[in-house]
Each structure stands twice: as C-alpha cells, then as structure tokens.
Amino acid sequence: MTINSKIQGIDYSNRLARRVGDIAPSGIRKFFDLLASMDGVISLGIGEPDYPTPFHIREAAISSIEDGFTMYTSNTGIPELRQELSKHLKTSYNLDYNPDSQVLITVGVSEAMDLAARALLDPGDEVLIPDPCYVSYSACVALAGGIPVMIPTREEDRFEISAEGIEPLISSRTKAILIGYPANPTGTVMPRKKLEDIVNLARRRGLIVISDEIYSRLVYGCEHTCIATLPGAYENTVFLGGFSKEYAMTGWRIGYAVGPSSIIAAMTKIHQYTIMCAPTMSQVGAIEALRNGEKSADEMVADYNRRRLVMVKGLCDIGLSCFKPQGAFYVFPSIKTTGMSSEEFAHALLMEEKVAVVPGNAFGRCGEGYVRCCYATSLKELYEALERMERFLKRRGID
Amino acid sequence: MLNKVLRLLEDDGRLTPEQIATMLGSETAEVKQLISQAEKDGLILKYKAVVNWDKIAEEQVWAIIEVRVTPQMKAGFDAIAERIYQFPEARTVMLVSGTYDLAIIVTARNMHEVASFVTHRLAPIEGVQGTTTHFLLKRYKEDGVVLDDKNKGMRQQVVL
Questions:
Q1: Count of alpha carbons within 13 angstroms of residue A3, beta-carbon side
Q2: Dist CA A284 CA A286 (whole Å)
Q3: Closest of A151, A125, A104, A111 to residue A207, by C-alpha
C-alpha cells in the first residue's frame, strides 16, 4: 500500500470500484514521471505531432471566441460540423453517413471509444483486441464491464492480425472486435485482403467491428483502407476518427464516431448525460480543419515520411532491426539482441543517454522485446537521438 | 526529384547527400549528381546560415531603402539595378510593383554609414528620382525562421 492510498489512516483501496482497481496502472507511469524530472532528454516517447495546430485553424477558433460563440452546442455536435464531416467521408471514401442520425462529435477518439464500449457491452462480454495495441483499448473495454481478449501478433507478420488467428478466439460471449490501423505502437497498416477476411468473419459470427482510424491520413506509399468501405462492413462497423493527428490538434480533444444509427443513438445517450457536447471552440476549429486543412495536413505527412525513412534506416544502421512501418508516426524496433527486457532497455537508455522511448510491453505481452519510438520530432533531434542510441548500443557490443 | 532535393537543401543546407537520399528513398549517388549539376547550373548559388544577429553585441544596422527611378530606354530598370547591386552595402536588390521601383536591403556598421551610402552612392546615380530609408528596429522572422520562438518546449509529458 502506498502512502497516497492512505490519508489519516483510512484505507481507500477497498472503497474504490473493483472495476477500476483491477485495471493495472499504466506500467510506464513511473517512467514518465522520471522523464519529467530530467533535463536535456530527447523524447521519442510521446505520440503526438510536434507541430502546433496550423494557424488558420487556431484563428478560426479564436475568432469564434471573440464573437461570443461560447455556449453549448447540440449534443451530437454543431450541425455544420456534422455536415462537413459527412461530406468529407463521402468524398474520401464514398461512404454515406447521415449527419443528423449517424454522426456524433466526441471529445477525441478516446471518448468515442469509451462510448462505443459502453454502448455495446454487457458485463462479461468479450472484445477481441490486437496485441500489441494502443494502451486504452483494453482499459476501455474493462471499464465498460467487458473482457478484453488479446489477439497475439508477431513481427514476422509485420504485427498484422488475420481471420485465421482471430477465429479460434471467438467464444459465445464475443461481442466485438476493436482494432486500429494504421497502428499504434507498431505503425502497421493492414493489407486490404486481410481486412476483408476479418470483416467477413465478423459478419459471419455476428461481431461488431469498432475501428479506430485516427491515423488514417498518416500512411506512406500505400493507401489507407477504411474498414466501413469493405463489402458487408458498413452495417457492422463503428468507425471512429479524429483531428488530433492529421491536423496536429491533440489538445483540442475533438473526434467523432459514425456508424449505424441505432448504435450512434445509444452512444449519444451516454454522451449527452456525461459530456453534453464536445467543446464548442474545438468544434469550430474542426470545421476549419475540414474545410481548409488539406494543404497543411499534406505537408506534415510529407515531413513525417522523411523522418520515418531516416528513423528506420538509422535504427537498422546502429544494429536494431525493425520492419518498415507504413503508417502512423512510430517505429517499433526489436531490442532482443541486447538481452534486456523492454523496460530495462528503456530505463537504461534514459539514464545513460537521455533518450526516452516507450517499452513495448506497455502495449501488450507481444510488445515485449520491442520499444516504441515516435518520430514526430525534429530531424535534428532524431539524428541526435540516433547518435546517442548508437553509443548506448556500442557499449553493449552491438553495432 | 530535383525540386524535392532543392526544397530540403533550402531548409537545411547542411544535409548530406546520404541523408537526403534516405529521406527521399533514393540513391546517394543520384542525389550527389543532382546537387552538383544544380550547383553547376546556378540553381544552387550558395549555402549559408540564418544568423540571429540581434543576439550579438556587435553593432550592425539594417535598412530597407525604397528607390524611385526613371527607367532607361532599352535597359528598363535593369541598368540602374545592376549599378546599385555592385555596392557591397546592398545585400538584396529587388524590382517591385507599387509606389516605388527598387527595394534594397542594406547592412552597415552604423546609421552614418547607411546615410552616407544613400547620399553619396545611391542618390547621385542618374535616373534615381528619390529614396525613402526605413531603419530596421526588430526582426521577428527571417527566411521562415522565427527568431525568438516562444512556443518551443510547450509539449508536456503525457502518459500515452
């Protein structure tokens, strides 16, 4: 028991809901606390763009505040934003989502995911989730009373999942499959064919697909496959997206869910009682992003791509093997040759060379033996980080 | 490809051909070849640093001078511009549209030197009708670089 859990002799640990207590605290919390207390660290740890939001988007929000547009919006979001988004999904993917019944604007994809889990799951329902994956997936499912069932993946398969791998994990309690591609932490982009097979399997076994496509625009040399566009997927897919990554709007906390109207209505019910509506000024920013953000988004993606190539080659050159990720802004090199665990490696690298990477096991058991490096940082820092990592590895006889 | 290489070099002239090749997914030899050809063809004129002189105590003044000129037969504005750019004080010489014709950026050690350049060198040139000199008070952004970027290091540590 830690000091924090005891105040004036009261033990709070048995007063907390079991559901919450059962969730292991993020394993890297301590690591990040340590990192925050150090100077001169190059952080490849945080998964967010290093750019500020494009100025025209900031300006749109500023002027809406000046105009006094500061009240609640409609629960599902400003009608203009829903319409704009619906138009965007039509032009990008030829998908039809009715802005009045199939679109919900949320506080980031994080809220959308929580809503989807809560709207779909009864206690004990199982949700299939790739391992490794973004840390929130399992927690969201567990907090909604569900049981996360991990789909193991391997580097040899570029951390892709497959229908054959998933089918044996389906039980009578399996309700949904929660996936996110391009993937955090691996940068994996799923081949279209494999997704088609998974969509078919889901349909055959009556599973809902919750698809987190926050990195949809961050793909390099390939096309993003939007799950809902695949044959037979539209009716069974809750499609989540956001503005944080492609428009560098992480702090605005703005995202969306689109899907079958009954599911969106259920999610809206929770949203209206717990959140009311997404922040008004952020919604205004999102409208501007959809209308005029194309150019700045493209420039950022081109920049990420250059950094990706530098990072992949750099890591391979210094002796860490990694497959070439095709999306998001992460590389996921193997550190197995060092003989260290992911956490040991990350800790030692931080202490000795002041480079922060995230231990792969934070993202699931299959992430052990890997570390996540986010390359959304300046080229200058990336080169410096690579140099420091090279020194670190040389001391251990790796080059 | 050439344009991509030039854009990268324009942003960072110290990038090596190896680094550029990695970023563009091409071969070092090809990049080397493109760069040396661009240097030969006068596409790349010079590599230099963007210096924040405001951080250095050394006295230096900058001025932007607007010059109204009478264009000459045949040569138009070129002949006068060519005379002006011979002076080492003139850092940049441009023909512009609007209420004046040539815009000149001048650097000198002090205001006297600028004044002397304007009165003794520039004004007497035949065809120069008049000048307006603006002394530079503070630079905020230079060649796309914000000199005193207040937004640096605003990223906070967040657990994923």
A1: 0
A2: 5
A3: A125
| C-beta of residue A371 within 8 angstroms of C-beta of residue A360 | yes
Q: Chain A window 308-327: which residues touch B at a Cβ cutoff of 8 Å?
A: 309-310, 313
Alpha-carbon dihedral of residues A226, A231, A232, A235, nearest 10 degrees?
40
CB contact under 8 A, A26 and B23: no
Query: Does any domain span residue B120?
Result: yes
Say yes or no: B24 and B91 in one domain.
Answer: no
Return all residues near B46 (Cβ < 8 A) that are at least 6 apart: none
Q: Enumerate the domain spans of chain A.
A: 3-52+296-394, 70-293
Of B23, B154, B155, the CB nearest to A310: B23
Per-position pLDDT tens, chain A of length 399: 455 555 677 888 788 888 888 887 766 777 888 888 888 999 998 888 999 999 999 999 999 999 999 999 999 999 999 999 999 999 999 999 999 999 999 999 999 999 999 999 999 999 999 999 999 999 999 999 999 999 999 999 999 999 999 999 999 999 999 999 999 999 999 999 999 999 999 999 999 999 999 999 999 999 999 999 999 999 999 999 999 999 999 999 999 999 999 999 999 999 999 999 999 999 999 999 999 999 999 999 999 999 999 999 999 999 999 889 999 999 999 999 999 999 999 999 999 999 999 999 999 999 999 999 999 999 999 999 999 999 999 999 887
Q: Which two tokens stand for residue A316?
A: 């391979």
Give the count of Cβ contacts less than 8 A between chain A and B.
42
**Domain hosting residue B31, numbered range:** 2-40
ipTM of this model?
0.77
What's the pTM value of the predicted model, to 2 decimals?
0.90
Query: What CATH class is the domain A3-52+296-394?
Result: alpha beta
A358 and chain B in contact, CB less than 8 A: yes
Q: Do residues B72 and B109 both lie within one domain?
A: yes
Q: Check which CATH number belongs to the domain holding B120 and give it.
A: 3.30.70.920
d(CA A311, CA A322): 10
Is A121 in the B-facing interface, judged by CB distances under 8 Å?
no
Which residues in chain B have Cβ-Cβ distances shorter than 8 Å to A45?
Answer: 157
Q: CB atoms < 10 A from the CB of B144, how many? A: 8
Q: How do strand B145-146 and strand B141-142 relate by DSSP bridges?
A: antiparallel
3-state secondary structure of B78: helix
User: Any idea which fold A70-293 has?
Assistant: Aspartate Aminotransferase; domain 2 (3.40.640)
Distance CA A307, CA A374 (A): 10
